[in-house]
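Handout for the seminar on molecular recognition.
Each group receives one record of this type.
Step one: identify the two inputs.
Step two: read the structure output and locate the region that could contact adenosine-5'-diphosphate.
Step three: write two sentences on what you found, then compare them with the reference statements printed after the record.
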Amino acid sequence: MSGENEKMTWKEKVRLNRRAFSIWYREYPALFVSTALYSLLNTVFPYITLYFSAQLLNELAGARRKELLIQKIVILLTAEAVVLLIRAVVFRWKSVLSDWTCIYFYDRKRQFYKLLSMDFCDAESSGAQALLREVQQTSKWRNYGVRRVYTQYQEFLEALFKLLGGIVLSVSLFRLPVRADAGRLVMLNHPLCMLLLGLLLCGVTLFSPWLGTIGKKCVLQCDEELKLGNRFFNFFGSLMSADKRALDVRLYGQERFFTQLNPIQNDFGVDSKIARFSRGRMGIACAASAAVSRIFGGLIYLFVCLKAWGGAFGVGSVTQYIGAITAMSGGLAKLLELVGDAGINAFYLKREFLFLDIPNRMYQGSLTVEKRSDKNYEVEFRNVSFRYPGTEVYALKNISLKFKVGERLALVGQNGSGKTTFIKLLCRLYDPTEGEILLNGIDIRKYDYQEYMSVFSVVFQDFQLLAYSVGQNIAACAVYDQERAESCCKKAGFWERVATMPEGLDTILYKNLTEDGVEISGGEEQKIAIARAMYRESAFLILDEPTAALDPIAEYEIYTRLNQIVEDRTAIYISHRLSSCRFCDEIIVFHEGSMVQQGSHEALLMQEGGKYSELWNAQAQYYVSDAS
Ligand code: ADP
């Protein structure tokens, strides 16, 4: 974000703030009601004390009537007790709703759902990811963005109630005249004197927050540097935590980067831009802002005391008027400060909305997929070509192919030949640049996406499991069918391991969420991922390098039970290890995005000079020399 350099009209700022407010209000209406009520009670409470204390002091310093004193004490205590009680109840209600994690959760949830619902090509694009990282960083670190609107709303209400309460309690200060025999103090009754005081009040009230906003804007100008510094701080702060990186850090002494590259020193240190601002413009503006309001406080004291000295009101009212005017001025200043703050927040809101408004360009159909118990679905690639967004080179070129039901199909080829891209198109993570993909003769774009995907189970190469139980991971759901999960585990060859786990299928994986979590090897993770794909009971089972993380024995084990795993599904294997695919009915060889050969293992080997035999011989040589 270009911060201050970016110009924005107030109309635009208001529009962005209103939109953020309505997002919060729509998502969390109860919080807005409870906050309003709490702010009202919170502001009213000190005014009750202020008003009745003044009454008591006046009575004590004046007529000292016993009954009246008792009556006022009773009213004061009752009013305070009632307001305190209601405030405590409302506070509980509000704080349960507005608990920090709750607000944080709503923010994250909104961003998370956006990420999930946007076109995959956008979700994985570096632009959208960078935008989201920036939004999350600013919101976590400086509390700017949509979340800020809630804080501002609370502060706005408190300031408004403070202002109104102050006005009500200080009206009589201006109305009650100094006694005629008070000498030169009589001039305080002159309308010009009131006008002067009013102007002073307005001037200071405007001046102080204006200075404060100048200070805040300086921070906006350092936005880029501070953001970078904060990122490095987070990165280096977690470098030695027990994650996969910690081992490398120890072995290679990578912590040295911290002192050698340390931009934190530059961005937050004594010579940084923000430090220079603090010593200069920003520091002076903030200090002047505080000083101006103090000077004003002194003048109010003087005015009120002089009027009391002149006999306009009793000594007790001095505390009431000073308290009321100070609160009124504080309220007004806060309102103005909030206007400035909302203006600054508008720049961050614009960025957040840029992320939330990323449009979905892929066509979303609504057709349902016919549910077939015989799993007799036919998928066809018809002249499909594909280029990744922003690239000129075709990752897939003119692919035409039909899957026969119940078949075991293998896609082989060197790395980068287009195998995974083929699967991504099949799963409609991208649409073909040219050509079409059909399910039962209908373009897959016309189907409802969830419906369409229910036909497929995929184990991607870089699958991820969660720190939940084995069973929950297999079912991809908190509640799962124990028997079905057990049967999938058995077929994937993972049941013996589950049997040794302390809680069986209910054993939690990893230690992210609990100390009792169990760490598992890459091969075991892969078996769970295979079991997860089987649990879905879909018509197509797609395994992208299913045995990449397995040792030779485990790999052999998986292949010997493949028929059991696949059952009556259509299976598609992707591998660059040709030996893994020999058992398939049909092998398709990819090379530089094109299908160059198709046939059974034996038939393909017979084709001398073909890509398959070239790869096969190269890999066979590798294994031979490796073994010798
Ligand atoms: P394989 O699975 O056979 O190893 P891929 O399908 O992953 O090959 O990649 C095919 C080609 O597409 C490669 O040249 C790769 O660099 C490119 N590619 C893969 N993913 C992306 C992406 N997200 N953006 C741009 N190019 C990509």
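Reference statements: Strands lie at 379-386, 396-402, 408-413, 434-439, 442-443, 456-459, 540-544, 570-575, 586-591, 594-599. The chain is about 60% helix and 10% strand.
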